[in-house]
């Protein structure tokens, strides 16, 4: 007979009802083959006695098992494990080992992505300074306005519909506000038809890639480029072609030469501040690129991730502001302005492309967060976004100035750089006598965390020996500490 | 000479600075070829006079244009449009027509998706009753707890890191709480390694599809199925194979027969309440399916979208609770319990699959909303989610009872159905004498909006003449109104 007493362990303190625990365990034993089909189960009084529980509990459990189809009552005969269940060999179930294996390694095959970039954000909590790729300072995020506005919006009864299913294009109010805001600040000339709210720039790049690229379509990027974009393009099946980048940005003459030989589906540009080198695409090259797009019929994916952070003069209007032929897909977001966790962005393109992007959204994640999007709309309306942008722009500018002046004063024997006209990072070249691995290792031991995967800035082996150093997320004290540590590091090189 | 006075229109009331407006327009004329390279620009005093603005404004504009590279100053000679700019034929720019065309139709090619489902949610605000596919009642969303908790969490200074970049796996606290919550309520035996936070069930289906399917891999679904899942699989390149569905759920004997002939990559099941027919997968077939998965090495994508809504007895534990060989990918979310706009869900699978899903997340949308995820963790901890679930379960059960009893009492000549044991919708079959198009049309004129795309419930032309009618989102008054309108409609058939 099956040893019910020792095989069923009930925990009165557990959250789950006792009768359900009993069910669970009987089912477990049925599935493992220890209680095979047609096994006669003990009467409710007997089992209750053995397990030292109330008879009512056993009755409830049996009722449940009957309802679920695990056991059956044959009138005047008793209760049996359902005879229709498949027969199972108990030896097939080595529970301990199986559980461990199966929760780690799947028994089906799926494709791995060896190229996908791993987030280099460290989650180690020990005190140290981390030099990032050019992230905003999340400590400056306007949390008070954001959470207060969020709460006020969520609470209003006439906003209840925000909690229902919403449009895959994004919250209407936010789209209206953004059309106005972007037309004003970016010199665009768009309407509601041209905008889709995304969850940040990365989603814009992903949507554009999935829509544009079929297998082996060619996408053109700079020979130094934002690597996550490259991975995103490859994920969509595109082949990447490189053109040089110099102090005026991507080389549009090289693009022209490429177009004469190959059919390019699209080119990816970070026109305002090239990622990673921070240079701005010159006015001439902008016009040239737009002409080429018109001539050869390729798309320009313009990733304007840090449009608002321009320190010396007014930002140069994006390519999208002069897109007379419908070639530009314009991508941006608020994550750099507000905080990385505030995932709201926009995709701007001709209507037909936006409609397809909206279809894609339906199957990727259904829609955005309507309450957050409405909150954003309210913050734009109240001028909070604009005020916050001005505020952080001043702070980031002074941080840039401090970081660059210290770097120049004290470390010019080791590092070379141009003061960036905008953006949140400096493109720093290490003197060729030295190696970044040494710098990273020594800095790490002094609690200054540089990017250990610095080679990712040079996927084409150009040997520029440069990395991006984000200054924006460091306050004044941290900037001084960084420079002091770098001095110590360099003294040991 | 270029007619500056009539070609430049400045708006003192506009948001954008006057000098920047002047820049914008000069750039526009340069780009359109009306101010060709090497054109001599008027002196600042002259232009200021012509445009009736302050000379300082013109100086600021010229400085800006010089900084951006549009114009240049030749010492002792004057200011000229940059001679290096490309020459443009003004006839190429027919602005009015171009703007309209380009904002509608793109000049590059991209793939369209004719099959993608359009959201059937109507945004027309006129008062009417809408019968949905089985959505929760967003009016019941626990908005007060949610927004209060959100605000409290966002405000705490030690939560500031929530605003920084977060993990692609999701907020750690939420993952910990969910592991416990799901182990308790679903009889799972998972650890942190097995869970990825998503933005709802749909994202889980999307991630699983992208990872599992290469071109022409076969995925098996019921011959009636949740259509959005089908589209998601096709988007990933999979080929769909159908097996029958009866009153015990999908026919696992048919699955076995299929596996003998074809290599199936995965099967998609809504085991708890089949979508659309609402039947529950029987205990026998569950065991059979798990055996087949082990034998043939395919994945089981278990979409448990409404696990918590089971009215007659305790929910049957999902297939994932007995996944001894690592075959099950378990997908669920909170959108049906809380509100469609609260996009938090989970993907449960063996560790290696979860790690790849996390990589994919990096390029799709970077991460979730950390503050919202932390809010969710807090609501679980405080028991709010569980209390809310119990509360809406009672309400939905009584709505089911009312809807079904009225439908049976008054409309049994027209509609046939089984009272669903759970879920938020009834699978209603229309008497074969009648046609849903008539019903939908007549109902629409009486302000009862049924799904005009009802044929989507029968993509394989089985002629079951059935649709889903969601009762959960209707309150008592709306249920009565619905039945009354249906009576009127049927009287006219």
UniProtKB/TrEMBL annotation, chains A, B:
Top-level taxon in the UniProt lineage: Bacteria
Database matches in InterPro entries: Aminotransferase_I/II_large (IPR004839), HTH_trans_reg/aminotransferase (IPR051446), PyrdxlP-dep_Trfase (IPR015424), PyrdxlP-dep_Trfase_major (IPR015421), Tscrpt_reg_HTH_GntR (IPR000524), WH-like_DNA-bd_sf (IPR036388), WH_DNA-bd_sf (IPR036390)
Single GO MF descriptor: transaminase activity
Keywords: Aminotransferase, DNA-binding, Pyridoxal phosphate, Transcription, Transcription regulation, Transferase
HTH gntR-type domain residues: 16-84
Pfam family, one: GntR
Keyword Endoplasmic reticulum on entry: no
Membership in a protein family: In the C-terminal section; belongs to the class-I pyridoxal-phosphate-dependent aminotransferase family.
Name of protein: GntR family transcriptional regulator / MocR family aminotransferase
Record organism: Aquimarina spongiae
């Amino acid at each position: 007979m099956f040893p019910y007493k020792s095989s069923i362990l009930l925990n009165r303190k557990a959250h789950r009802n006792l009768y359900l625990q009993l069910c669970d365990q009987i089912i477990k034993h049925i599935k493992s083959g220890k209680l095979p089909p047609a096994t006669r189960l003990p009467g409710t009084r007997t089992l209750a006695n053995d397990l030292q529980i109330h008879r009512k509990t056993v009755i409830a459990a049996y009722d449940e098992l009957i309802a679920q189809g695990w056991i059956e009552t044959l009138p005047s005969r008793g209760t049996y494990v359902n005879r229709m269940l498949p027969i199972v060999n108990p030896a097939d179930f080595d529970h301990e080992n199986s559980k461990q294996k199966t929760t780690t390694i799947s028994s089906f095959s799926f494709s791995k992505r060896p190229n996908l970039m791993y987030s280099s954000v460290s989650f180690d909590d020990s005190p140290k300074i981390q030099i990032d790729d050019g992230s905003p300072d999340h400590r400056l995020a306007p949390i008070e306005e954001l959470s207060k506005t969020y709460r006020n919006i969520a609470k209003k009864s006439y906003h209840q519909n925000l909690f229902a299913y919403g449009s895959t294009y994004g919250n209407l109010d936010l789209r209206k506000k953004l059309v106005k805001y972007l037309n004003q600040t970016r010199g665009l000339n768009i309407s509601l038809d041209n905008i889709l709210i995304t969850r940040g720039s990365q989603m814009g790049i992903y949507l554009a890639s999935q829509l544009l690229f079929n297998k082996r379509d060619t996408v053109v990027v700079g020979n130094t480029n934002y690597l996550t974009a490259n991975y995103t393009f490859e994920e969509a099946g595109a082949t990447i072609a490189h053109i040089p980048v110099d102090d005026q940005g991507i080389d549009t003459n090289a693009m022209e030469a490429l177009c004469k030989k190959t059919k390019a589906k699209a080119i990816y540009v970070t026109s305002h501040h090239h990622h990673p080198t921070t240079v701005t695409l010159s006015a001439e090259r902008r016009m040239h690129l737009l002409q080429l797009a018109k001539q050869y019929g390729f798309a320009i994916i313009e990733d304007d991730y840090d449009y608002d952070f321009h320190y010396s003069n007014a930002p140069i209007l994006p390519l999208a502001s002069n897109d007379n032929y419908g070639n530009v897909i314009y991508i941006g977001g608020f994550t750099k302005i507000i905080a990385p966790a505030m995932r709201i962005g926009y995709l701007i393109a001709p209507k037909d492309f936006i409609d397809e992007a909206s279809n894609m959204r339906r199957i990727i994640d259904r829609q955005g967060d309507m309450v957050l999007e409405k909150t954003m709309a309210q913050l734009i309306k109240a001028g909070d976004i604009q005020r916050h942008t001005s505020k952080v722009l001043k702070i980031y500018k002074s941080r840039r100035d401090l970081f660059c002046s210290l770097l120049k004063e004290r470390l010019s024997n080791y590092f070379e750089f141009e003061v960036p006209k905008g953006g949140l990072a400096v493109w720093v070249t290490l003197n060729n006598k030295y190696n970044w691995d040494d710098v990273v290792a020594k800095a790490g031991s002094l609690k200054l965390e540089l990017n250990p995967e610095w080679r990712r800035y040079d996927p084409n082996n150009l040997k520029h020996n440069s990395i991006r150093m984000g200054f924006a997320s460091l306050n004044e004290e941290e900037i001084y500490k960084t420079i002091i540590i770098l001095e110590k590091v360099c003294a040991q090189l």
